[in-house]
Amino acid sequence: MAELQSGGGGGCCPPMDLFRSEPMQLVQIIIPIESAHLTVSYLGELGLLQFKDLNSEKSPFQRTYAAQIKKCAEMARKLRFFKEQMLKAGILSSVKSTTRADNNTDDLEVKLGDLEAELVEINANGDKLQRAHSELVEYKLVLQKAGEFFSSALTSAAAQQREMESQQTGEMTIETPLLTDKEMSADPSKQIKLGFIAGLVPREKSMSFERMLFRATRGNVFLRQAVVDEPVVDPVSGEKMEKNVFVVFYSGERAKNKILKICDAFGANRYPFNEEFDKQAQAISEVSGRLSELKTTLDAGLLHRGNLLQTIGDQFEQWNLLVKKEKSIYHTLNMLSLDVTKKCLVGEGWSPVFATKQIQDALERAAFDSNSQVGAIFQVLHTKESPPTYFRTNKFTSAFQEIVDAYGVAKYREANPGVFTIVTFPFLFAVMFGDWGHGICLLLGTLVLIVREKKLASQKLDDITDMTFGGRYVILMMALFSIYTGLIYNEFFSVPFEIFSHSAYACRDLSCSEATTVGLIKVRDTYPFGVDPVWHGSRSELPFLNSLKMKMSILLGVAQMNLGIILSYFNATFFRIGVNIWCQFIPQIIFLNSLFGYLSLLIILKWITGSQADLYHVMIYMFLSPTDELGDNQLFPGQKTAQLVLLLLAFVSVPWMLLPKPFILKMQHQDRHQGQSYEALQSTDESLQPDTNHDSHGHEEFEFSEVFVHQMIHTIEFVLGAVSNTASYLRLWALSLAHSELSSVFYEKVLLLAWGYNNILILIVGIIVFIFATVGVLLVMETLSAFLHALRLHWVEFQNKFYEGDGYKFSPFSFALLDDEDE
Known about the structure:
There is one protein chain. This protein is of the alpha+beta class. It contains 23 helices and 13 strands. Its main location: membrane.
């Protein structure tokens, strides 16, 4: 395989190269302090430079631009306050503003301060007016309800008086009062005068309120309550709640004080009330007038507040983005070190090699636009430090790259499994999910996401939808491959179709009309593509498909594992590590193919020749009795000799993997640090290649025991893994069988069963159950299951053959990444 080399030129979009990460360089930029802000701003728009923090030993408060960051944080706080107020008012911020936003942060800071002060004042005045309005509403309710108490009490008292007068006769009865009215009014000082308190209490607390009053006064109060029909706004909390109007009659100052304390404890609002009906009517009239005035004032205040928030909303997004940009610029400037003359800022960072010209252009443009007399200096540094990993992906390849990165970010310039994952991942998924009916359903669902991707990309989606939308092209490939494998399996919701030709088999006579291969004869050429439809429903369907899918799983597994080992060769060649080629790649490829490569060859030979050889027997006795004759299990001449040679190679390759490498590494270490005092300087092209031979050892003491144990673990892991990984690929067969059988059960036991009743109602119910079972189990649960199993095969069985995944991502300073960040 030829190594792909990415071109250095090509404008903003050079040719994409996914096989190896972009060549990176460590650059140093010396910026005059007067043009520093504009320079970093232009680099943020470019988004191709990852700055290193040269002030890591300083706390955030000791850095040069701490005051500016504090100012930006204060502006961000004001913007968050505006956003909260707009959300409460139901006003949405405008994405496209008709007016131009202030680009000067000083002017913006003053403007935001004035707007905040005005909005806070409007809110405070509005709260006061709303509280006064709520109090007047409650006062009016008290006047109305309590007035009803007194009027009804007066009417009742007058009626009782008339009744008593009519009952009075000349002779005394047992009901005649002992004291006459004149006698009772003889000593006014002995009369008991009752006081009362009126107000509103929350309805949920009314029963507790009544009990507490009774207990505190020992029953020496009289309480009347009336339910308020509609919820009222509480003046204190500002929340709507259901309340009752109450009037408490009491005698004595001690009782009054207790009642007042209980009212405060229960949040009961008290209001003044006059017994005289004329004054009650006058008070109601005055309260109604004040309510009308307050309502007008409140409406005007709300309109003014709404207009102010709308004005803010028109420019909110621009202001917010500007503040985020400013804050990120000053954060980046704080990562730069101040020159001793305090006239320049020195910055270091990683950038792709192809971005050199673009960065230099940005620096020149910033120096010109800021009228700086001195331009910025750009130079490339040479370092042994491992650079970050950067792959240029697009909306199609990014999701596949994320699958790989979830396992571990590729080491700088190592072979990227993402290139092969684009094909192998959806293909292995489809092997387990193969049904072209289900594949079409997945395809239609994905096409909806792809057609509406511009609209969905601009919306805030929930976690599951966002994850599905992000992987839409992965699902698209999975659907296309599922249609392909479904056509090979000849299954459409488990139903076979004669799509490419008629079946190659026909009945010998009428007695073979049942679904069975007994009595079938071959009358045509072999079915041209996929499984002959006659196999479905036959007695030998399960043994035939089991054998086919199991052998196919082994072939696919051995092929992918060989690809992984071959990629380890390309890594060793690229990084010039010869010991890995001779003591790792060659023995690994020999060991794997001596056993399982040979098994794959036997499978293909058995298919070609139609032999009845028992491959289980061949492989088992290859180890147990390698010298025995094969008999009927012989597939080709000289097979016994070939097996002995392969067995010998497999046994030799194990110590080959284990022993030579640690000793060679020890010799290399001794040659470097004893025989040579100096090393040749590396060329510019090689200066950033990770020195893999030196990474773990360098100038430290060489720990032979540690290296040997590590190599022993690696050897044991590969030898055992060769067996377990091959067995692991049998999940392709197991899940494919499970999917096919589940699909067949839903079709036969739900849809066909409902059809057989000849009842339209049962048929409709059967169709609904079939649709829900297909979508819920086969299109959701089975899709997720096959996805996870394909993920495991790539992460464990494929990538562990060559992929180290111990790098770190290239995270450039870019304004494009600010939109998704939360403050």
